[in-house]
Amino acid sequence: MSHYWPLTVISMKMYFRNRQGIFWALFFPFLIMIIFGLLDFGGFNAPDIGIDDRAGNSASKSLIEKLQGSGDDPILVISRGIESTLLAELDDGDLDAVFVIPEGFAQPGRRSTVRVTTDARKPQASGVAVVVLSDSLENLFQEMATVPDEFLIGSRFDIDQATIEGQDQGFKGFLVPGIAAMAIMQGGIFGVVFTLVRFRAQGVLRRLFATPISPAHFLVGQVITRLTISVLQAYILLAVGALVLGVSIGGSPAAWLSMTLLAVLGGALFISLGLAISGMAKTEDVAAPVSNVIALPMMFLSGVFFPVDSLPDTVARVTQYLPLTYLADGMRAAALEGAGVTSLGPEFLGLALWTALMFIVATRTFRWE
Amino acid sequence: MEQRVNKAAGNSYVIEVENLVKRYDDLTAVNGISFNVRRGEVFGLLGPNGAGKTTTVEILEGMRKADSGTAFIDGIDVGRQPKRVKSIIGVQLQSAQFFDHLKLTEIVSLFGTLYGKKVDANDLLERVNLEEKAGSYYAPLSGGQKQRLSIAVALVNDPVVLFLDEPTTGLDPQARRHMWQLIKSIQDEGTTVVLTTHYMEEAEELCDRVAVMDSGSIIRMDTPDTLVEELLATGFTHDRQPKLANLEDVFISLTGRSLRDE
User: Fold this and answer.
1) Residue A160 falls inside a structural domain
2) Rounded distance, CA A73 to CA A54, Å?
3) Which of B63, B64, B101 to mutate to test the interface with A (most CBs of A within 10 A)?
4) Does A357 lie in the same domain as A288?
5) Which end of chain A, N or C, is less packed with Cβ atoms under 10 Å?
């Protein structure tokens, strides 16, 4: 019993002294997060604007035409509706901004205030929407040469910057928890595989086998170290996502509890998978490609970068059961929607089943030499 | 001190091996060997590659199960209680390394705790002349230093028997002589040593008795001196009369005895 602790301390020491290992465990996911986050695939499209046209007159019609632009590619993609529905869509992330054109819009002698609601988490789209609206109103003003002087552009609209507790934080919001999940997978699989295969190749494991300890003593120390790292990694990457990419994470203690438990269970799962791989792979030359063959497809099929439902149906039907899918989905629900442990039943069940399976394989295949 | 008394007590044979057999598929690595090792002696296992030395030693160390036969170390059945045996022996394995990112004192202390002992790491490192390296990491050590560390680690549990598997392979003449001194000093403290080696001058220098193995069997076992006398008695002579010094003596007299690994 007393052997667990020293081996855990030692394995921690070894991990944290290996600066290169730490660097890659954090830097690689960080790099991917920043690159994809800056690309911001969500920002490539023309902003989606919802308009509630309460005036329904020729001036409002003219304004909407200007907002759409005359070219083949619309400047703003317009959908019509009433304000409450449009705001709900904005909240869900389906729209980038909502304009409300008031009754009696542009009637001479009246102040016309176009109310604009934007999503604070989509500064790019909001900015474009407001600039285009301002330009269009300016154009409209010049066309209507008959209006009196007091009909001033500046007084015609306000901009109401909304901060919405929405379900959707755009691509960055999708990306950050996914990357945290991916990092847990990478750390578990690659960290364990390379450490164990190296220890075995160097005869370190054989030397331990010559002492009266059992494999469990050694493995427990390794697993505890990796789990600690797995949780730290998740925290750090989520924090980077929040601070650098402006994604709002978690919120409630319940959500943080979910994220921590997910990191622990996901860590246990991928560590077991790593142990299983290192048990089956005879040499380092085999272990590396085998690890990649398992990890790489999961990276792209488990909803880390793109939602699983954007995959072809037949593929999605299989990939929804991948271990990383459960982890990424759970992380995302906890990080973005503040999901507590109880509402993540399917994710925890999926992770637990995979962990049990991998643990059995890992213990069956473990070899000292 | 109690341990020392204990080592000298009991049966005069600390290792008793009878009809040990180990097969791998269709290869019989160890073919029914029997031998005893006396308390306090340095016992050599000699033989060409593939003779079965390492397999024999690994069975005695509790790392492999024999297919048949028995082996007792200090009265403990190795096949039945490998962990008890592991806890009273010291082991230096051929080409086994230690953790890269640990300091030598940490490695020694860690292994102490694996045997449930609190050890004075600096003291053990001093015994193998590594006191200056106590605070440095394992990875940059020279071959000779790594071998000496593995001896220090093998001594953490104050073993009844110390198993050394080719401890001087790959060392320069200075480091090899230093290792011989170390092994002699360990024997002087009452520890039994089982040594496998390919170097006959090493066996002659260190071993009280040697067993010569070939194809899984022990073909001859006696003191080095007796074995040499027996061969001479058959009328054996060298083609060339050996001189009173050899090239290694020249090498040592030219380069000195002091250790070179920094």
Assistant:
1) no
2) 26
3) B101
4) yes
5) N
Instruction: Tell me what the pLDDT averaged over chain A comes to.
Output: 80
Q: Report residue B5's pLDDT band, with 50, 70 and 90 as the boundaries.
A: very low
Q: Which domain holds residue A144?
A: 48-154
Q: How far, in Å, CA of A282 to CA of A262, rounded?
A: 31
Tens digits of residue pLDDT in A135-183: 888 777 777 755 555 554 444 545 555 545 444 566 777 888 888 899 8
Q: Which helix or strand (DSSP H or E) is residue B165 part of?
A: strand B161-165
Q: How far is CA A346 from CA A24, A270, A276, in A?
A: 31, 18, 24
Chain A residues near residue B96 by CB distance under 8 angstroms: 202-204, 206-207, 210
* A265: in domain: yes
pLDDT tens figures, A253-269: 888 888 899 999 999 99
Are A227 and A181 in the same domain? yes
- Picking from A118, A152, A151, the residue whose alpha carbon sits closest to that of residue A132 is A118
| pLDDT exceeds cutoff 50 at A73 | yes
ipTM of the complex: 0.87
Same domain, A74 and A189: no
Q: Report the distance separating Cα A68 and Cα A62, nearest Å.
A: 10
DSSP letter assigned to residue B28: E
| Smallest Cα distance from A5 to chain B, Å | 10
- State the DSSP H helix or E strand holding residue A98, giving kind and residue range, or none if neither: strand A97-101
Asked if B142 and B262 touch (Cβ cutoff 8 Å), the reply is: yes
Measured over the CA atoms of residue B252, residue B253, residue B258 and residue B262, the dihedral's sign is: negative
* Dihedral-angle region of residue A305 (phi above 0 means left; psi in -120 to 50 means alpha; beta otherwise): alpha
Given A154, A186, A214, which residue is the final one in a domain? Answer: A154
Q: Which of B62, B83, B102 sits opposite A14 (nearest CB)?
A: B102
Query: Taking CA atoms, what residue in B is nearest to A209?
Result: B63
Q: Which residues of B touch A211 (CB under 8 A)?
A: 86, 111, 114-115
Mutate to test the interface with A, among B55, B113, B151, B169 (most CBs of A within 10 A): B113
**Contact call for residues B174 and B252 (beta carbons, < 8 A):** yes
pTM for this structure? 0.73
The gap between the terminal CA atoms of chain B, to the nearest Å, is 34
Higher per-residue confidence, A113 vs A61: A61
